[in-house]
Amino acid sequence: MRKIIPYNPKLKELARQLRNQSTKSEIKLWQFLKGKQLKGYRFIRQKPLLNYIVDFYCYELKLVIELDGYTHDFEEGQNRDIQKQKALEDVGLMVVRFTDKDVMDNSEGVVTHLKRVIDGIEENRF
What residues form DSSP beta bridges with 66? Predict the structure, then answer.
């Protein structure tokens, strides 16, 4: 049975806007995630969870994928990321992070890493 993670309904419209204004790295990674292409799992883009919007989310795996652009290089952005990740992990979600550069320069490596993460999640479920 799927655990429902609550979210702030005020974030729905912002999430919709973010889906329509995706970064190049989000668009590129989405090409590998959409349509259950990654090991048959369904991912959602720009999903509100708690008081945050995550870049990609898979309910079945309880997996969040975050892409960090240049704004994440600054201390304020890093502090927000730490806070967000802790809150998500506190409700039982796994968070995997990549930089925009990782996705743009080595998307196959990113996908390979995600497959390994999923393999680990699958192994721990049984």
Answer: 97
Tell me if 32 sits within 8 A of 111, measured CB to CB. yes
> What is the DSSP secondary-structure string of 5-38?
PPB-GGGHHHHHHHHHT--HHHHHHHHHHGGGTT
- Write out pLDDT tens, residues 33-89: 999 999 999 999 999 999 999 999 999 999 999 999 865 455 676 789 999 999 999
Q: Find out whether 67 and 74 touch, Cβ atoms under 8 Å.
A: no
pTM confidence score: 0.91
Q: Is the dihedral of CA 82, 84, 85, 91 positive or negative?
A: positive
Domains and CATH numbers, the chain: 9-125 (3.40.960.10)
